[in-house]
Amino acid sequence: MKKVGKQTISFDAPPIILETASIVGPKESEGPMAKYFDQCLTDEFWGEKTWEKAESKIIKETVNTVISKSGIPSKDIDFCFAGDLLNQCISSSFGLRALNIPFFGVFGACSTFVESMCLGSVFIESGAAKYVLCATSSHFCSAEKQFRFPLELGNQRPPTSQWTVTGSGASILGHVGEGPYITHITPGKIVDMGIKDANNMGAAMAPAALDTIIQHFEDTGRKPSYYDAIISGDLGHIGKDILNEMMQSKGYNIKSLYNDCGVLMFDKNKQDTHSGGSGCACIGTIFSGYFFKELKEKRIRRLLLVATGALMNSTSTQQGESIPGIAHAISIEI
Amino acid sequence: MKPIETKQEYSDYVDKKSPDSPILKNCFNAFWVGGLICTIGQLILEFCKYKGFDSQASSTIVSITLIGISAFLTSLNIFNKIGKFAGAGSLVPITGFANSIVSPAIEYKSEGYVMGVGGKMFTVAGPVLVFGISASVIVGIIASFII
Q: Which phi and psi angles does A298 have, rounded to 5°?
């Protein structure tokens, strides 16, 4: 393991992504990606009394699924990295409290999934762990309640707004085994271009994604064409468009390789999700459900996965602060 | 496109890239739904008067009925769909006010009846009450000097 360039870490014995799992909510189950997920829920409460309990159950069951799919006994998993959007990351800590695996709570807003995988892979490569579990979740209803308005309130959403994905994605990284491996990680800087509109997250986060992707290319000496696909977390339709154009203006053409999980998750015309999906589970479920399989079956051999996060809360929005964005990238190859 | 360097350039660029709300459509829907709600109110008013209530009692019955219907539709998860369609059309009449109180009461019931329902019930309607009542007091004081 060594640092290359300004902010990229290159692995000598790359950690392997052994298994992934994903569970999504009812709206995601009606979307174009539904067939790739391990489980599609029909009830947003999933038999629980509160949204928060439902989200905890989703992450708990996703983690149980990934552990049983991998065949690795949970006592052999050394550490768990997990986080979510709710205050103090309660979905993860409450959902995983019975897991009995040493736990690191991670907050990177919607970039948490890749942030966890960055940290987990450093633990694996350094020899501190043989197996690491990375998980994240988000829930449309609990997120609306915390960040916006009660669900039953009769208000309108602007066309720039995004729809928080209900679901959870989890992965297990290991030092030996079969599967795609993580060759590089490029943790991102906090980038704030002054966007204050909490209903336009894609625009707030796109500059962070731009910064991290360009830095990754500069640090590794790679060109966009090195990759079969470059996938961002939850920039949505507007953010995707902005990133494409801004990459172009910096001399990188990624248009044919690039897509966004927020764009992939929903059918914009049928599902009334405006600018697309968002939330920790957006990239968590789409990577776990779709891209991991594409990598395993070698339809994609080199993937740059860039999770984006908006590091704000409802207080900062009310106080008129701008929204700092962040993006973490990992290079996955097979 | 030339590279964006400053926050101002980015803000202008984002404004250009972000689609506007369909104002004409929204206004039209707000107009006819809002009008319909007010017409229903007027019908109830006329009916009450016809039944022999005086005009003050009739107005009170109208408010109570519309609030009741709105609260009921909120609890059935229907009012938010009307609100999404009609915007200010269902928000500005007293139906919107009822919805803004009932919706947090439902949402925060999970935090208990005292701090959840009681404490959070006015999170949306609170500003309307504070500034509405304050404005009426100020207007009342001014009016008492003029009249």
A: 60, 25
Chain B interface disruption, residue of A94, A156, A201, most B CBs within 10 A? A156
Domains defined for chain A, CATH in brackets: 2-174 (3.40.47.40), 182-333 (3.40.47.40)
Alpha-carbon distance of A57 to A36, in angstroms, equals: 20
User: Are residues B3 and A158, on separate chains, in Cβ contact within 8 Å?
Assistant: no
Span A119-145, pLDDT tens digits: 999 999 999 999 999 999 999 999 999
Looking at every residue in chain A, the average pLDDT score rounds to 97
Choose the mutation target among A43, A45, A155 for the interface with B, i.e. most B CBs under 10 Å.
A155
The C-alpha atoms of residue A186 and residue A227 are separated, in whole angstroms, by: 15
A56 touches chain B (CB under 8 A): no
Chain A residue nearest residue B8, CA to CA:
A194
Residue A284: name the closest of A243, A231, A213 by CA.
A231
- Closest partner residue to B14 (CB to CB) among A151, A153, A203 is A203
- What residues contact B54, with CB distance under 8 A and at least 6 apart? none
Q: How confident is the model at residue B2 (pLDDT cuts 50, 70, 90)?
A: confident
pLDDT beneath 70: ranges in chain A: none
* Predicted local confidence at residue A159, as pLDDT: 95
Q: Does A248 touch chain B (CB under 8 A)?
A: yes
Which band of pLDDT confidence, cut at 50, 70 and 90, is reported for residue B147?
A: confident
